[in-house]
Amino acid sequence: MNIISLSRILAFWAAKQPDETAIKHDHECITWHGLEKTTNRLARAYASIGVKKNDFVTVALPNGIEFFQACYAIWKLGATPQPVSAKLPVFERTQIIELANPSLVLGTSPEDHPKFTTLEAGFLSDPLFGDDPLPEVTARSYKAMTSGGSTGRPKLIVTTIPSEWDIDDDQFRFRQQGSVLIPGPLYHNGPFMWAMIAMFRGNQVTITTRFDAEQTLRIFQEEKIDTVYLVPTMMQRIWNLPTDMRTSYDVSSLRTLWHLAAPCPTWLKEAFINWLGANVILELYGGTEGVGGTRITGEEWLEHKGSVGRPNETCEIIILDKDGKQLPFGKVGEIYIRPKAGPGSTYRYIGAEAKSIQGGFESLGDLGYFDEDGYLYLSDRLTDMILSGGANIYPAEVEAAIDSLKGVRSSAVIGLPDEDLGNTVHAIVDIADEIVTEQELLSHLAERLVRYKIPRSIELVNEPLRDDAGKVRRNALREERM
Q: Which residue numbers delimit the AMP-binding enzyme C-terminal domain (predicted)?
């Protein structure tokens, strides 16, 4: 083991490879030496305005070198980065910030959040702040991620892992001092973890502003990428490129393709295995909470098509029916996971409570079953959450925004199948006898929801969508529209 505090991990790699590229974004790059020096100065600037050990710092910055600089400066003060989308409307971001109560908010204007200390994107620390090393300090939690709650309110998922890392740990199959591509948004847990852990192992990390299928292949070739993080939507967009274009790029350097965040269609996974080789493809199933999960290699998958793998060594997984009775192999039920270290050992919520049963098992809201060899298969979401392009969208959150518009009586939000995104958001809106237009509703939602949560299609109706108890028959509504 070689555990290093994240307040010192840049210094470790800067000493070994000072002039090598640490991060590349579009046409910009920064060396390990440059990253170490700029984040020392930035950390002192943050400290001068009140950031202290174990504080949260909200990071509302887009993909870019500045995002990484902010996180490492935060770690150098023993504080915890709390990333959010840079595109969040003020209304939604305010809810999250009030939960986190951070000592600093990055990437926003002062008038947006007058109760908090803020710095806008592009902030440059005063050159008078020194760039020499700071004292070593380790935060209680190295990340605090955001999730839209099933109640329509956001929650924070705060890891119990401190801000330190064993650089000899290869559980994610990263090389040391290799080349990694992360084309996803860094405020999401998966891209954040994979990008940061890759850097903890001394890898060059290449990121993109947004995902582009051909650009991804070009980066494979130009940067000799050995590890990439994708979601199935990205994989499908790559596969939908003309065959001669897809096969014209040299992808021989690729040794690991991770995919997660959403179910991968069997045909698509098989196509990637045939293209890149079964030994390259790895899939992970789990949640931001880190209570446990599964992983599966391409070789295993060919023997258990459709599976997401067997439980990893840190957890136990059981399948229960609606009465809490454990189900045998082949029977679909709700998936419950328990970390072997015990309940509460991997995370804590701010703004929500875990769904747990006796013995410390928790549900992530999925349905599935085991085969006789102990491989897990996912069937569907037990909850109403919509997976669209690898992002989690909670209907209650969208409905709350719709229902806040004057003239709307009630609404029901469902996911409809989409070949590209997996699902798209469809809103059924009961406007009774009021005059509400689709454009008026979209303008209202643009002020309250990030773009990917805004319904792709809207259906205006003049009939109640909920019964007297306030319940909505979401599955029935979806089946009717299917």
A: 397-463
- Are the CB atoms for 201 and 228 separated by under 8 Å? no
Q: Higher-confidence residue: 254 or 356?
A: 254
- Of 26-35, 134-143, 264-273, 401-410, least confident by mean pLDDT is 401-410
Considering only the C-alpha atoms of the chain, give the largest distance between any 2 of them, rounded to a whole number of Å. 70
Residue 338 resides in a domain: no
Q: Give CA–CA dist 113/279, Å, rounded.
A: 49
Q: How confident is the model at residue 479 (pLDDT cuts 50, 70, 90)?
A: confident
How many domains is the chain built from?
2
In a 13 Å sphere around the CA of 187, the CA atoms on its Cβ side amount to 24
The two tokens of residue 127 are: 């050159």
3 state DSSP class of 411:
strand
Average of per-residue pLDDT across 19-34: 97
The domain that holds 42 is classified in CATH as 3.40.50.12780
The answer on 70 and 209 residing in a single domain is yes
Tokens of 341: 């270290």
The pTM (predicted TM-score) of the whole model is 0.87
Question: Could you give the C-alpha distances from 333 to 299, 324, 336, 469, in angstroms and in order?
Answer: 27, 9, 9, 26
Structure tokens at 256: 């690991």
Alpha-carbon distance of 300 to 283, in angstroms, equals: 11
291 inside domain: no
User: Which parts of 127-223 are beta strand (E)?
Assistant: 144-148, 154-159, 164-166, 179-182, 204-207
| Phi, psi dihedral angles at 303 (to 5 degrees) | -90, -15
Q: Which amino acid is at 195?
A: A
346 assigned to some structural domain = no
